[in-house]
Sequence to fold (407 residues):
Amino acid sequence: MRKITAITFLVIAVGSASATIESSLQSTLMSKLYKKFSYYRSGIKADISWLIADLKFKDGNVKICEFGEGTRSRYKGHDAMHGKGTMWRFFWNYFKQFNVPPYYIGPAVFSADDRQEIRYEQLSALGGKTLYRTAELAHVATLRNHRKKKHTLALADHAGLLMFRHIDASGFSILDFKSRNPDLLVLNAAVAPFVNSKYLTNILFLEEKYAPYKPKFVLCKKEYSSNLAAEIHKKLQCERYVIKPLYEFKGRGIIMADQQDLDTVLQCMLDKNSLQEQKNKKIYSNDRELFDFWQRSKKQHFLVEEYCPSNSMTIKDSLYDPTMRLVFTLHYDQGQVHITYLDAFWKIPVKSLDRENCSLTQRCKSKGTIPAKVSSEDYEQVKKQFDAFMPSLYKKMIDLINGDVTF
Ligand SMILES: Nc1ncnc2c1ncn2[C@@H]1O[C@H](COP(=O)(O)OP(=O)(O)O)[C@@H](O)[C@H]1O
Ligand SMILES: [Mg+2]
Fold:
């Protein structure tokens, strides 16, 4: 079988070096990633990861907008429909099968509200504890000695599971700690290096078998030029685009643009002087906060993706383009991958599709705070699609970290 690496695909997908693609960024990101991998000295032999996927769903087909760490996501919309902490309840119900105590690294003071949000009583019933950030690692290292050490590395043999809400689980200090304490699990260790960068997430999908599940994309240098929009369009050939920062969340910096407005939108993002021009004023003033984000941003690159709609949804006689949030876990134990679905809900944009006097972004970008229920038919179809690619994509992340495959 011919082995084609993801990088080869990237070149196929975006063409050769040009103003829109920065090969130096690729190598910087890759060397940072491989430096992280070197911390997993003995490789990943067991893992538990909790993920969210924001996805578009049309005519039975899934397109992934992004992944995120389940612990770092808020479930406000879901909580509003089902009660505070319900998603965490689902997580704990799943997690109890491993019989491993969870250690939640969080703030110094846990308010009653915080405890309810993470269903503290369930964590505690599993023999777990919450620990304050700065004291975290040393404290856990002593806790682990209370458990008899074994040398098989099945999930159930681990001395505890560390979980972080406010910290990227692939931060260097955490990886360093993990490498010195291999009998402790870090939740999301296998996925965090990839899912906390939208660019690396996209790259995972470049292989032929995964490509249908991800919108087309191109990586651009954050520098305005009068042919940038044309170059992007030449490569992606879409009617509508989504502009994305690589490392933000909560919709920060996400701007939608129709093809004919792409140049104006790029100008408003990247060229301060252009804001004086009459033709740019309307586009700018509708999404001032988003354009100001880009004007301030010191980052060197951004992504442009194909805009993929979902089947539209009627709410109070108006049509909306929703985004589904699927919440699921993956674990890897004795060579086997398991996927478990916790729940799914729709997120709705603030404005309906037919709404006038507002921006395209307001009509197209969903908000986690405006929820709707997913029908069981849609849920089943989405799960079926995930069954087809997600376990092997997860194994690919583990294999990349373990050095068994390369990009
Ligand atoms: N390729 C896309 N096509 C259509 N809508 C998208 C696309 N990418 C993102 N969106 C919309 O923008 C929202 C925010 O983008 P997302 O990639 O989830 O980043 P964030 O980390 O900011 O939530 C999504 O929930 C979805 O509504
Ligand atoms: Mg999102």
User: Anything to note?
Assistant: The CA atoms of residues 166 and 239 lie 37 Å apart. The two ends are 17 Å apart (CA to CA). Residues 1-17 have pLDDT under 50 and may be disordered.
